[in-house]
Design goal:
With 363 residues, this protein is an alpha+beta fold. The chain has 2 domains: 175 residues, no CATH class; 112 residues, no CATH class. Helix content is 28%, strand content 29%. The chain has 7 helices and 17 strands. The strands form 6 sheets. Strands 1-2-3-14-17 form a 5-stranded mixed beta sheet, with helices on one face. It has a 4-stranded antiparallel beta sheet with strand order 5-12-6-11, with no helix packed on it.
Length: 363
């Protein structure tokens, strides 16, 4: 410490006594803070693990523990499985050095036109027989020292015949109409045009208009875009925007409470150019991809607690009767393969998959 003060003194002599007092006060204050920090957060000694020998490293790579081994996705042909085949495949994977499996029962890759008796077996997912096969797989995997995870559903995203249309996936649709004031607007608000069914690998059908729900109606003053002179090309006139349109968000007028039950609105439009927006909750009618069940399989509304509970009751709670004693033991985790949502643009074009990270809930 004396060396530190000596060094500081040499460097601040030319600055005068006041500068020296400032520096000394800073050092003392810092020292007090450092001592206080050490008193509140005492240091701990961490003992390093002993370094493994070359032989131990080699053995660890040649014979890793189960927790460090590869897991694979084990795709079942729906419910068309047997306990004997389940045991045989688990033994084969164990002998190949695989540490665990994730069970997914669906029908992707299967014969699209199977014989009726085969189709019935494939679609027997979530039947007592299927739950019995899952129970056998869990117990056999545990006997072999393998990890077993289970996808909570058939195909993806979550859904199935147990999800009614009102609990199905939804999107927020936006429709708009330009208005010019001053004028009196007395008409139906901008509404959702006819929706074509989403294109999925499962069955598709258009959404039910009865399930449309108005969320909000707003009017916003705007400046229309500016276009250049049309340029003819290949028999058509192309318009180039030279200045984008702009919304004046400070001018927003909320009109939701003024909309009548028949979706009509009366509003005195102020002077200027306005855009009238309708925000409408619309069911997507998206179907489960690859679901191995009979009937219409709606994807559940991922933001609805009631929809998720319906799904958990139909699959998770039903499964507990068969292998609930294996939760956290033979059955390591309930698996969500992916959240994949589809939606359509106002023009009817299908938007690409929105794929979020998979996650497993450890149990």
């Amino acid at each position: 410490m004396s060396r530190l003060f000596s060094s500081l003194n040499n460097r601040t002599t030319s600055l005068g006594g006041r500068s020296w007092r400032v520096v000394l006060g800073t050092v003392v204050t810092g020292g007090i803070l450092l001592l206080s920090f050490n008193a509140i957060f005492p240091s701990y000694t961490v003992t390093a693990s002993p370094r493994p020998t070359d032989a131990e490293l080699r053995e660890g790579f040649q014979n890793p523990p189960t927790s460090a081994r590869t897991m694979v996705r084990w795709w079942w042909p729906g419910g068309d499985v047997t306990d004997g085949e389940i045991s045989r495949e688990l033994r084969m994977m164990k002998e190949a050095g695989i540490g665990g499996v994730e069970i997914q029962s669906f029908k992707i890759g299967l014969n699209p036109n199977p014989a009726p008796h085969v189709e019935a077996r494939v679609d027997s997912v979530f039947s007592p027989e299927w739950f019995g096969h899952v129970k056998h797989a869990i117990e056999e995997g545990r006997r072999l020292g393998m990890m077993v995870d289970l996808t909570l559903g058939s195909g993806w995203p979550f859904g199935g015949p147990h999800i009614p249309p009102e609990l199905g996936a939804k999107k927020l649709d936006m429709e708009m109409a330009p208005l010019t004031g001053p004028s009196d607007f007395q008409s139906e608000i901008p509404w959702v045009p006819h929706q074509a069914p989403l294109q999925t690998w499962g069955q598709s059908q258009p959404p039910d208009p009865k399930l449309y729900k108005l969320v909000a109606v707003e009017a916003i003053r705007w400046t229309p875009p500016v276009y250049a002179e049309p340029q003819s090309s290949a028999g058509r006139a192309d318009r180039t925007i030279t200045r984008s349109g702009q919304l004046d968000l400070q001018s927003t007028v909320i009109l939701t409470s003024q909309v009548k039950p028949d979706n009509t609105l009366q509003w005195k439009v102020p002077d200027g150019n306005w855009l009238l927006f309708s925000l409408i909750q619309v069911p997507t009618a998206q179907q489960v991809t690859g679901g191995a069940e009979a009937g219409t399989q709606y994807v559940l509304d991922h933001l609805s607690k009631a929809a998720l509970q319906k799904h958990i009751d139909a699959i998770g709670e039903a499964g507990k009767k068969y292998y609930g004693d294996q939760y956290g033991k033979g059955l390591r985790a309930i698996f969500v393969t992916a959240w994949k949502w589809l939606a359509t643009t106002p023009s009817g074009a299908t938007i690409s998959w929105r794929n979020f990270r998979s996650c497993a809930v450890m149990i």
